[in-house]
Amino acid sequence: MKKTFLIPIVLLILTACQQEDYSPMTVTMYNQANDAIGTAKLSESADGVSVELSAEGLEPGLHGIHVHEYAKCDPPDFQSAGNHYNPDGKEHGLMHPEGSHLGDMPNIEVDGDGTVEAELLVPGATLTEGNYSLLQGEGTSIVIHEKQDDGVSQPSGDAGKRIACGLITVEEANEETAPSDPTANNKEEE
């Protein structure tokens, strides 16, 4: 009798302790006019969170891209996203000897036609629970800047204005249908 009673309790406890799995999740990226310009697919990996970025309508060249501390993307300046995500209080920059912010990523290169396809990594980050979760609290955001990040300047790499933003939230993770391919419009127009 006692064993029969204990089994449901143990199962209930184990179920309650399981972490939600939000990987992979698709984040919709918006420009300053609040138009959807692409997606960032985030996936849990052994080394952190992998980011597969696909976007259009950007100026050709190098652009800084970072995870920011708040899940807010109020256009047109996206200042509501706050600073770079930095739970350890480090200096900014992948090349800084005392850096880097957890949200720092390598620059992306936008092609001459305004499109970008890039694979990035947020080392040490996670989409589950923990101190380095991109989903902790209300979540975070991913921001593309108008210029390249120089990798050392404080506090944000002299990357210029924020030109695109997407929310990294549990709500985004729970969206049932991912947005369509943002470059599909280009193919149809040709």
UniProtKB/TrEMBL annotation:
<dbReference type="Pfam" id="PF00080">
    <property type="entry name" value="Sod_Cu"/>
</dbReference>
<dbReference type="InterPro" id="IPR024134">
    <property type="entry name" value="SOD_Cu/Zn_/chaperone"/>
</dbReference>
<feature type="domain" description="Superoxide dismutase copper/zinc binding">
    <location>
        <begin position="38"/>
        <end position="168"/>
    </location>
</feature>
<dbReference type="InterPro" id="IPR036423">
    <property type="entry name" value="SOD-like_Cu/Zn_dom_sf"/>
</dbReference>
<dbReference type="InterPro" id="IPR001424">
    <property type="entry name" value="SOD_Cu_Zn_dom"/>
</dbReference>
<feature type="region of interest" description="Disordered">
    <location>
        <begin position="171"/>
        <end position="190"/>
    </location>
</feature>
<keyword id="KW-0560">Oxidoreductase</keyword>
<protein>
    <recommendedName>
        <fullName>Superoxide dismutase [Cu-Zn]</fullName>
        <ecNumber>1.15.1.1</ecNumber>
    </recommendedName>
</protein>
<comment type="similarity">
    <text>Belongs to the Cu-Zn superoxide dismutase family.</text>
</comment>
<keyword id="KW-0186">Copper</keyword>
<keyword id="KW-0479">Metal-binding</keyword>
<dbReference type="GO" id="GO:0005507">
    <property type="term" value="F:copper ion binding"/>
</dbReference>
<feature type="compositionally biased region" description="Polar residues">
    <location>
        <begin position="180"/>
        <end position="190"/>
    </location>
</feature>
<comment type="function">
    <text>Destroys radicals which are normally produced within the cells and which are toxic to biological systems. May play a role in favoring mycobacterial survival in phagocytes.</text>
</comment>
<dbReference type="InterPro" id="IPR018152">
    <property type="entry name" value="SOD_Cu/Zn_BS"/>
</dbReference>
<keyword id="KW-0862">Zinc</keyword>
<dbReference type="GO" id="GO:0004784">
    <property type="term" value="F:superoxide dismutase activity"/>
</dbReference>
